[in-house]
Amino acid sequence: MAATDIARQVGEGCRTVPLAGHVGFDSLPDQLVNKSVSQGFCFNILCVGETGLGKSTLMDTLFNTKFEGEPATHTQPGVQLRSNTYDLQESNVGLKLTIVSTVGFGDQINKEDSYKPIVEFIDAQFEAYLQEELKIRRVLHTYHDSRIHACLYFIAPTGHSLKSLDLVTMKKLDSKVNIIPIIAKSDAISKSELTKFKIKITSELVSNGVQIYQFPTDDESVAEINGTMNAHLPFAVIGSTEELKIGNKMMKARQYPWGTVQVENEAHCDFVKLREMLIRVNMEDLREQTHTRHYELYRRCKLEEMGFKDTDPDSKPFSLQETYEAKRNEFLGELQKKEEEMRQMFVQRVKEKEAELKEAEKELHEKFDRLKKLHQDEKKKLEDKKKSLDDEVNAFKQRKTAAELLQSQGSQAGGSQTLKRDKEKKKQEALF
C-alpha cells in the first residue's frame, strides 16, 4: 500500500475523544514561543524608489535608530541593490533585520530594464533557499533566510498619477514579494491633493492588475484594524530622525518656516499606521505569506522546469520517488542517446582523419619521389660538370708542361750562342 493511501486513511479515521484529566500539551504554545524567542527572528525589507525619496530616513525612523549607509547619488550607470544586515534587540527578543535598497533606481534616461536587477535579486534569494532546502543534510534552523518579506514601494508625491516606471515595476514584483505602496515625503502636497492622489493610485493599480499586499482579515483579533487599514493604502508617510520639543514632549518632527510636521501625529501623516501594520501587527503574516505564497510559487515553477510533477498523465497521484525514477530513466535514455551520437561522431571523425592522413601520406611520398629524382638529376649534372672540369684541368696541365719544356729548350740554345760569341771575341783580341 502506498504511503499516500496510508496517510489518507489515517486522516479519514481520526476521531475526537475526551480527556479524563490534565495532560499538559496545552503548554505547546508557550514552548513554541520560548523556542522562537531563543532562536530569534529575521525580517527582510526591500525599499524600492527613486533616489532622494527618503528611503534611508524612513528606515531610521521606523526602527528608531541610525543605520549606517552611504548617501546615493544620481549618477549611477544602472540600478544596484545594496543590502545591509543588522542585529536588533528589544526586551528579550532579537531581530536580524536586513534592509535592501535600490541605488540608482529611476536615474537613467532609459528606464526600460530598471526592474530587472530587482527581480533577479529576489529570485536569487528564493534560489538560495531552495538549494538549501534540497540538500541531503539541511540546516534550515540555522540558515539565514534572506528572502524578501516586505517591499516598501516609495511613490514620488507628484499629486497626479503613477509613473509608467512604477506601474511596470510593481507589476513585475507583485507575484514575487508583498508590496506595500507608500507615498514618500507626503508633506510636499496638500491634504486635498493627497486624498485625490491616493484614490488615483488605487484606481491605476486596480486597472493595471497590480496585486499589492492586503492586510489579513481572517484572524478575528486583527480583522477590524486590518480591514480599516486596507482602506488607507497607500500610506502617506514622512520620515525624520530629528526630535523637536513640542509642548512638554520631545517628538520626531520636521521644522518648516510655515510650521512643524509631526511624524507620529496621525493627523499629519500615516507613519504610525505603517509602523503598526508592518511591525506590530502583521510582521509574522508577511513572513508567512512570503514562504507559503511567493516562495511556493517560485519553488513549484522551478521544480516543474526540472521535470517534477504531482500527478501522472492520468491525473493520479505521483510520488516524488516515482517522479525521480521517471526523470532518472529519461535522463539515462537521453544520456545513452547522446553517448551513441558522440560515438558515431567520433567514428566519423576518426575515419575523416584517417582519410586526411592517408592523403597527406600520399602527398608526402609523391613529394619525396619528386625531390629524390630532382636530387639525382642535380647529382648527375654536378658529376658531369666535375668531369668536364677535370678534363679542362688535365688539358691545362699538359699545355703548361709543354710550354715549360719549350721554355727550357729555348734557354739552353741561347746560352750556347753566348759562349760561342765570347770565344770569338777573345780570339780576335789575341790577334791584335
Task: Report on the architecture of this protein.
- The protein has 2 domains: 271 residues, Rossmann fold (3-Layer(aba) Sandwich); 61 residues.
- Strands 2-3-1-4-5-6 form a 6-stranded mixed β-sheet, sandwiched between helices. A 3-stranded antiparallel β-sheet has the order 7-8-9, with no helix packed on it.
- The relative contact order is 0.07.
- The protein is an alpha/beta fold and 432 residues long.
- It starts with a helix and ends with a helix.
- Helix 8 crosses helix 9.
- It is elongated, with a radius of gyration of 50 Å.
- It is 54% helix and 14% strand.
- Septins polymerize into heterooligomeric protein complexes that form filaments.
- Keywords: Cell projection, Coiled coil, Cytoplasm, Cytoskeleton, GTP-binding, Nucleotide-binding.
How are the elements arranged and paired?
Layout: H1 3-12, H2 28-39, E1 41-48, H3 55-62, E2 80-90, E3 93-103, H4 116-133, E4 150-155, H5 164-173, E5 179-183, H6 191-207, H7 220-230, E6 235-236, E7 243-246, E8 249-256, E9 259-262, H8 271-281, H9 283-305, H10 320-431
Parallel strand pairs: 1-3, 1-4, 4-5, 5-6
Antiparallel strand pairs: 2-3, 7-8, 8-9
Helix pairs in contact: 8-9
Q: What key attributes describe this structure?
A:
432 residues, alpha/beta, Rossmann fold, six-stranded mixed beta sheet, 9 strands, GTP-binding, G_SEPTIN_dom, P-loop_NTPase
Radius of gyration: 50 Å
Shape: elongated
Named CATH architecture of the largest domain: 3-Layer(aba) Sandwich
**Poorly predicted tracts of residues:** none
Largest sheet: 6 strands, mixed
H/E series: HHEHEEHEHEHHEEEEHHH
Taken together, the total number of domains comes to: 2
- Arithmetic mean of pLDDT: 88
Number of strands: 9
- Secondary-structure-based class equals alpha/beta
Helix share, percent = 40-55%
Looking at this structure, what is the CATH superfamily of the largest domain? P-loop containing nucleotide triphosphate hydrolases
CATH class of the largest domain equals: Alpha Beta
Largest sheet strand order: 2-3-1-4-5-6
Number of continuous helical runs: 10
Distance between the termini: 173 Å
Approximately how much beta-strand content do the residues carry?
Answer: 5-15%
CATH topology of the largest domain: Rossmann fold
GO molecular function: GTP binding
Subunit structure: Septins polymerize into heterooligomeric protein complexes that form filaments.
GO cellular component, one term: cell projection
Domain Septin-type G: 39-305
